[in-house]
């Protein structure tokens, strides 16, 4: 039975397009599981619906699956949202929900529904010491039966200790504990139990037990068993109507479909019309006309059974005499209620997806427009007193991930230059809005003070106020002031990645002064550091999307950026800043990246190529 279970699970797994790889297959499986869980339909139906969506939208299956996951996944745990941030020297993880969904029990029950024999999935309960105290029936095959006569779905929710106390008192209980602890499957028996001989197989599945029972004093495999298994597998029954004698025959499964006691015998043809849904009368009339013309019938109609509406597919034909008159009508009736209901729910889910997609697209457009207004990226370098500055903005790979990265580069009233780069956690309109508030605040505060540490202290006060309204708000920043007369930079940082200084063909990260991220510590203080900034140097300020990747540490990304800058400087020491920035690529495709590069200039070195070339040769 466990092999059959595994084969059934494998048959339900959706296939990935060629070349998608293992990651692509897992993405499609996850999307199918989400659709099936939301629509409460079979995995196969959800997979077909996903394929249809891809065809109708003229998009790749993997792209559609990714979109479904992004829109349907439900938060149930936390994971780091920003990394590499710190309070002083202590790393800080800011968390937001991670979305995920696993339709466990529903899938297990759907497999057991088509599994012959007695099988069940039982959830385990343990005491504080880890000992098994209870097994609860949460999924069962139709043939699973208890000594008191309860079958299949009637067993769900029953507690072993209350309804099967002899199991708890037997040696099997300790074996079940061992299977749960080790994950090693086991076979018990054959052993005598009540009126038969049984073998029990137990496997750990998740945190519960998958158990099946084989009774050895029955003779399986006969024609009747095979027919019954086929009927259960397809949820169908068959019947015959002898038009000469009037005799009607129903199979066992047909009685189950109509929920009729077999002792009452089959319904006479036409006797079920009172339960038929009136709106389907044209379909039934057309099917009868088909049969009268000698054609085979294949039609889905609705009937009311014990107060519920079922969708029944009928495939029927007739044996006829020499003149074509029907003598015997025979057919198959399949209960397709679950498929029809699943298809309707899938259509509803698709409409919800369209609405969510339109809503996300509108939010993305609003955030993108806000970002373009607040954060215009110049086409060429910015010339400031004693400095030339170039900027590059790399948006996130997913179009709905508009972020909160920002920059500032402007001359102050005293002739110095203020440079800044910041990063607001999260994406969408909230992040873009907070980014705008911080950037405008920095510009306004620079009228009152030009000290980077003081500016960060004021931004932290503002961020703490904003965090009261949005608790998950967090951001980082680095602020630098350049004095052209002294060729000196004074800078401070708030939980931000360290700036990079390229000097003499070698790039290194600067040692960061103390400073916690913004919006976390009330009344935080920030330290400053000083740096001689000479002609030929290049300073890089950037956000963490340049160096941090969800599968690699920040040190790996930082080393890669340093190597790229060194290679660029060696290859063309006098290249413009824009060419240098064009070599840099973000490490994290799910995060925006803002890069600011600055180099000193003087009246004689506005064009640095000649100077840097000779300086490199001299060095």
From TrEMBL:
InterPro entries: ANTAR, Bact_Sigma-Reg, PAS-like_dom_sf, PPM-type-like_dom_sf, PPM-type_phosphatase-like_dom, WH-like_DNA-bd_sf
UniProt keyword annotations, A-Z: Hydrolase
Pfam families in UniProt: ANTAR, SpoIIE
Residues annotated as domain PPM-type phosphatase: 388-599
Coiled coil: none
SMART domains linked to this entry: ANTAR, PP2C_SIG
Limits of the ANTAR domain: 8-69
SUPFAM superfamilies per the UniProt record, alphabetical: PP2C-like, PYP-like sensor domain (PAS domain)
Protein name as it appears in the record: SpoIIE family protein phosphatase
Annotated source species: Paractinoplanes hotanensis
